[in-house]
Amino acid sequence: MTIEMTAAVAEPRVVTLPVDRAGWMAWLIENTEPDWRPDEWDAANWLFTGDPDKDETAIWRCNSAGCHVAVRATRHLCRSCYEQFLESGLSREEFATVGRRTLVRSLPGERPPCTVERDGARCALEAQSRGACTPHYTRWRYLRNRGRTILALDVWLQAEAEPLPPGTPCLVGACAGSAHGRVPLCTYHRDRWRRHRNATGVKGPIHEGLEEWAAVQPPWLTGFQFSLVGLPELLRHELHFALAERDKQRPTLSPVGMRLMVRGLKCVSSIAELTDKKLGDLGYLDRNCEAHWNDVVRLVRGAFDRFRGADPLDRPVWELGDLGLRSRTRSGVRVSSRQLDVTQIRQEWLRRLLADWVKETTPDNNDFRVTFEGCMSASRALSARPGGGHDPGALKVTDMDAVVAAIRDRKRQDGTATLGYGSRAELLAHFCQLLDFGRRLQILDHVASVFARHPHHKIPYEDPAEDMAGKAIPEYVVAQLDAQIHLIGDDFAYGDMAPKVVKAMLRTVYILLRDTGRRPWEVRWLRMDCLEAQDSEYILI
Question: What is the pLDDT of residues 488-500, one digit of tens each?
């Protein structure tokens, strides 16, 4: 049995945010977990720095010795290291331990200092090019281009350059680089500021608009990081809320996937007001990013419904991830974002009863699935009756007879055979329990009292052994297998087990199947103490 899911969202519409946008943002701030991933999330700068040693963060370090580049799978090499590995002639294990890549790009704030030194005083700035900091390199080029020095850079640094004092912190939040000169930006951000001015045609003073620009700039991002600082404020709070809620259900976050998502959201002001058509027009999304995006959209829209006081169970299409269904996952909460078109249940009173049952009992996934399928069978049966079952007060015993008959004759999804006895009995039991729930909570006071389960409403029991009798392996086939029993398990690899052990195990499995008549899955789950002695006879448990 499977629930029929909608292939597309059945409510393509533009959701207009309330006039009080500040109220929606205030709701997000109030309901967002304040201590979300404190070791990785820098709330002041809207910066996430993933820890590759955490199971909850889907990012790893390159497996090459000394390389700090992020990769998207454990024990993988970054592209540069992989190319060098192919040329090295080493095995992967050797390259991972001794095959350090020939060039490792330094991170801002971790580069070696400039090589200029005088009387024991070292230049306090980072080396940027050929051992020189940016001011020294720029000065050397200026002198050389005007013919005022013929010295090579390394000689000039040792002979003429003077050490410089420490630079000021870069104006961009969380940036590890230092600033020098008139503009309080590191080399990386100073170049971006210059390009921004050229692109926008700004001709004013160099500091005009600098603070506003720097406030929405991310630092130089590694593969372990993503930043929300460049997005509109409301969108930032929506993403922060959704990521914190997502951790409660699916605690594995990919910084690379989030980087792609942030890139696609550059022109979006709010997820809550996006139409469904726009969701596919955000640019390139890989499968990992798409999975993150589906979770974010589901969580933001569910939160927006709660902010407006809307009940997700009042919709014709239910988002199953928003119903709070219990599951056997580690979080105990359903995380699938699949949607269910409840208009397949044609009777309004039955749909409302199912919604009230979900709201009051918070069922697990299996109970919800079986109950919904029972309602589907009942709805089809009632639709074929006079009146279509839409008037609950007019229902009769014969209507309940039709429902039981529909469940009794329920076919498998492929239509090849009738459902097993256990499945059909479970469908009927859950549907009748739903009716009992409605009457107990006085929800079904308007439904005729005769529309209930009566003693004759049963699913006839069928012995599965009768169906299996004709499926037994013929004796002459068993005899052929016995004649070749010594071949069972030959050249069959099974993990790290020795060939002799594998051969003995598979021969034992065959003998158990042959002599007990058990099915393979039953033999698979046998325990070590599966034999019990009674009156000098052994019984298989």
Answer: 988 888 877 888 9
